[in-house]
Design brief:
A hairpin with a 4-residue loop joins strand 2 and strand 3. The protein starts with a helix and ends in a 19-residue tail after the last strand. Helix content is 5%, strand content 49%. It has one domain: Porin. By secondary structure, the chain is mainly β.
Amino acid sequence: MKCSLACCILLIFSELPGQDLIFSQYYNSPIHTNPAFAGLETHPNFTSNYRIQWPSLNNAYETYAVTYDQYFRDMNSGFGFIALSDDQGDGTLKSTKIAGIYSYKVRFNVDWQIKFGLEAAYNQNRLDWDKLIFFDQIDPVTGPFTSAGVPVPSSEVRPESLNNSYLDISIGMLLYNPEFYVGFSMDHLNGAYAGFTNAVDDATTQSLQVLFSLQAGFQIVLMEDNKGNPSTFISPNMIFARQSDFNQLNVGAYMQINQLFGGAWVRHTLKNIDSFIFSFGVNLDYIKIGYSFDLTSSKLGLSTGGSHELGIAVGLRNLGKKESKMNDCLSLFR
């Protein structure tokens, strides 16, 4: 019955414009949130993120993602790549995203810099219709099966195609100096149709709604390394996202002490606290590994299994131009 209810819930939300996934460790791979973050360093950077949400409910939401980005100083440009796979309802709805990113940096003076980013993505959604349980299939006594063990039939019409591919466009900007940063991004500018139903009227209701996102933070340096870069620092930060009628605000702080880091955030919907996020990890010369856990503030508590996220970032510093002191406040993202 848990699986049936989960499928019903998934079906309800598949008919409505939901909110995009925002990684709890968005700082591990910020180009997912804002394409202007592409190319923060001159060497190749590779990241991978794995997130599982509500594992006690048959792995309700599971996401894998890998990225690459790099800055090319001679062109004042950054380039990036994203590959993402999302699985909802234990294979009921699967999504794949392949994206290319370009960013351009303008330096006003020794301190102030601004970057502009553009992302073009190919997306594909695949629906396993046979895993869906509709409301008219649920018998009050026997559930989705008859007393003889036969599935209850549904009057819902199977879509002509269970695969949908579309182009998705996003833009962003990032303004920063040695003390603080602020970024703004807009996803789904072209309002692509992401549904499966045959009804013409659903072309509007199932079109991707524009996602507006604001990122901001500052950096308090406590100690520096021999190059003058922060080795121990605190970075209070926030990210706000709005998509249709959905709001999400993450507010908290990240702290790194030499090679160890950790952080805590509160996720709010502007109506109530949704969850608490805790993370910790290690940041070595070439690799950064972090783990985070989301604890819901609702009565469900730990019954859903919470949300777990593993992030790994690899920076091939020996392949890029040697960096001098970083004159910015973006150590959080490195």
